[in-house]
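testing teh design pipeline on a random one, pls ignore if ur not involved
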């Protein structure tokens, strides 16, 4: 039997994370479509992409992406043990620490903007480099504020409040859209990029609060946070390397890489991050409460659920890359040639989507056990593989070669994380879980073929119609096959859609 071992509310918690991410991502695509209309893949687009990458790196390095891994297990453990006063004091001192860290990071970033630009985009020169430096100076304070948002996310998630923290960035997207629509027809691309950077900073510019200094658990959070920071640093080095390599290719390569990454990141965020974010507090409670076996089952079910959504996403992104990119971005300065380039990169990123999404959950298993060092070591190996592969493949495949290298590194990361976690908790996937993953592949492959045929049949009938019908075809075929073959998550979705009580289904 493959009935749920997860907490009764964990599926709903993951759904709330997914809903918050979905709201943000949908508005993000609207923002990017408007961005593509005015910038295309011109020099200003390259400069803005490269400059925005820097604060995002800092945010992922020191903010929600790493702090949650060290803060939530300790904070959730105190809450689970009923030590509410200790939990509040812990949250207070971490907030104070982050305020100081954010201020220092911001000042250093502004002062070193030229050096950061030359490191991140060594291929930039002339006006493109000058514009990138100016944009980095404007937007770098965002990174400091984003660091503080990781603290808020950790507190909210521990108390099982997921939607708001993941939907909050939607406000940033709305502001960006407003700036582009208001000024896009008035300003030249260079000045529009500067206005967009100021708009981003103003909207993100909200401060949080700090409180008293001494609290139980602080040393443990900081001690476990440091390895996670190094691990995120390894990942962000990979992100910078991708930009560096793309900047050495033809003009527009950095922008094309960014458009494709935006689409490729959607299934990772909606399904990989949502499941991992909802699981981490529960896994942390398992580690101090029910025990290793409960934790193992929770990771296994999460992996199966991630696979059910991300494997078909990979097939769909590969089969429908051109209609998806065209429907989302082909407008104004972004024409068919840009669509063809970005579609090739998206198809290459699709190869690694299952691995990228799974790593999030596997790392959460390590974090819940208090082990933040193992994912760091594995990340270093996988990033080295990604960088070397990307460097070799870009000579033959261009920008798509960078994406293929990233995908290869992701599989190395997933394999090593799974192996190390199984050495501590036992074999993760039993026969029923493996059978379920097999069903996802059996459903995704014919769904991809059917959707590609639908896209070809509607070619020339309108970009949105082509993409919409193709995606609908994919979803119907995939859902039908997985229901027919008895996949538990397919039936769970059907029961949820029909508002019927959840049923247990044998695999």
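output:
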């Amino acid at each position: 039997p493959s009935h749920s071992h997860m907490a009764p509310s964990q599926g709903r918690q993951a759904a709330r994370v997914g809903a918050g991410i979905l709201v943000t991502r949908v508005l993000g695509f609207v923002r990017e479509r408007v961005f593509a209309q005015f910038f295309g893949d011109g020099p200003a687009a390259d400069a803005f992409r490269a400059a925005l990458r820097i604060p995002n790196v800092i945010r992922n390095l020191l903010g929600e992406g790493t702090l949650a891994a060290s803060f939530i297990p300790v904070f959730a453990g105190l809450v689970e043990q009923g030590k509410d006063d200790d939990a509040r004091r812990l949250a207070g001192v971490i907030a104070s620490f982050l305020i100081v860290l954010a201020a220092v990071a911001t000042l250093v970033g502004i002062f070193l903007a030229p050096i950061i630009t030359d490191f991140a985009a060594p291929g930039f020169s002339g006006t493109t480099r000058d514009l990138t430096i100016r944009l980095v100076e404007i937007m770098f304070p965002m990174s400091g504020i984003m660091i503080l948002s990781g603290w808020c996310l950790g507190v909210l998630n521990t108390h099982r409040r997921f939607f708001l923290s993941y939907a909050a960035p939607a406000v940033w997207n709305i502001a960006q859209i407003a700036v582009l629509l208001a000024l896009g027809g008035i300003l030249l691309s260079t000045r529009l990029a500067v206005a967009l950077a100021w708009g981003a900073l103003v909207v993100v510019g909200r401060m949080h609060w700090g409180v008293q200094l001494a609290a139980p658990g602080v040393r443990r959070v900081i001690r476990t946070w440091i390895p996670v920071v190094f691990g995120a640093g390894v990942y962000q080095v990979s992100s910078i390397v991708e930009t560096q390599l793309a900047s050495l290719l033809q003009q527009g390569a950095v922008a094309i890489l960014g458009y494709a990454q935006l689409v490729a990141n959607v299934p990772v965020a909606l399904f990989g991050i949502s499941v991992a974010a909802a699981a981490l507090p529960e896994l942390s409670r398992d580690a101090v409460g029910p025990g290793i076996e409960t934790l193992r089952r929770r990771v296994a079910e999460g992996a199966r659920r991630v696979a059910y959504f991300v494997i078909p996403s990979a097939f769909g992104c590969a089969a429908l890359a051109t209609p998806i990119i065209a429907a989302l971005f082909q407008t104004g300065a972004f024409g068919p040639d840009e669509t063809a380039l970005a579609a090739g990169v998206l198809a290459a990123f699709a190869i690694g989507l299952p691995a990228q999404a799974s790593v999030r959950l596997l790392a959460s298993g390590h974090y819940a056990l208090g082990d933040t060092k193992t994912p760091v070591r594995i990340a270093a190996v996988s990033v080295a593989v990604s960088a070397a592969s990307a460097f070799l493949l870009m000579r033959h495949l261009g920008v798509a070669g960078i994406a293929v290298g990233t995908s290869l590194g992701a599989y190395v990361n997933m394999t090593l994380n799974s192996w190390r976690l199984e050495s501590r908790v036992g074999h993760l996937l039993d026969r029923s879980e493996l059978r379920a993953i097999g069903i996802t592949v059996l459903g995704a492959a014919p769904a991809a073929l059917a959707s590609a045929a639908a896209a070809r049949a509607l070619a020339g009938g309108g970009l949105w119609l082509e993409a919409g019908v193709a995606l609908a075809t994919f979803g119907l075929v995939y859902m039908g096959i997985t229901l027919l073959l008895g996949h538990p998550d397919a039936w769970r979705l059907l029961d949820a859609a029909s508002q019927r009580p959840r049923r247990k289904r044998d695999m």
